[in-house]
Amino acid sequence: MRRVTVPLADRAYDVVVGNEAIGQLGDLIPQRTRRIAVVTQAGIPSRFRDLAEHVGERSVEVFEIGDGEANKTLGTIETLMRSFAGMGLTRDDLVVGVGGGMVTDVAGFSAASWHRGVPVVHVSTSLLGMVDAAIGGKTGVNLPEGKNLVGAYWQPSGVICDLDALDSLPPREMRCGLGEMAKYHFLTGDDLLAMDLEQRIARCVEIKAEVVASDEREGGRRALLNYGHTLAHALETATDHELAHGEAVAIGLIYAAELGFEMDRIDAARVDEHRAVVAGEYDLMTRPPDGLGIDELVALMRRDKKALDGLTFALDGPAGVEVVAGVDERPVRAALERFLA
Ligand code: GLY
User: Fold this and answer.
1) Tens digits of residue pLDDT in 232-261
2) CATH class of the structural domain 2-169
3) Residue 213 class from Cβ within 10 Å (0-12 exposed, 13-18 middle, 19+ buried)?
4) pTM summary value
């Protein structure tokens, strides 16, 4: 079992990573908590949703939300809030999000908004959640106009990453987590593949924790965590979410390397290294589906949330991955043409 601290001064919190980590939940619950609202989904294994044995005398009510991006809405938040009102949840109480990234994003946003902010603890049950979504305090929901357009920064009081939850994770969700995990290979020089799963997840959390602590509200450096994400977000929209987020990130990492090469930031060997990690070591898809148009993808990339100044990418280079704004459209198109050919 490992504990990684997200070092945010008076809001620092621990992420517990390991088999049977759920047994540590009691340690992460703020002392004054009397009642707990669990936000979860129907398919989550009962040993992670039935929290009574870990929370002492506190009372627990469980609220299920629907599955998938279509339920990541303000409507779901309103339904949850009305349930919180029904149980009389106060600022001295706690929300616990139990599930993958969608659940912890929704649980986090409901906690951020209820009575202008109540504590939240996340029990992450997906690989993607453990290495990314549950850590760092980004919460939110979608609008018909786009993903995660409404949200808040709301740091949890603690996060549980119980590796036992991964035993029953569907292969596709596992691949999605691997897509995000592959990203961390390029943010540091670490040989993550030499580590066992617990070490590797804990290291990904540590890398993310360090970046988040240096730029909590994404004034700059935190956008590094979006390496591979500019094309990924465009692919998710262009395929109407046929491609899941982690799958799109795997493809987006290769495109980011191709673009870095097109802009003379990295050499061909470094592009090959990206392919070797993403396609070879992690065995992930590296080509987008057929039939996507360059104009559409460029237009979607221009609308990316981190694009404050034209096309913006996190790009590898001599000084490592950096955020590059105002990227000229020519290399973006040239790299896309090569990539889609
Ligand atoms: N998923 C990227 C971030 O948390 O900043």
Assistant:
1) 999 998 998 889 999 999 999 999 999 999
2) alpha beta
3) middle
4) 0.93
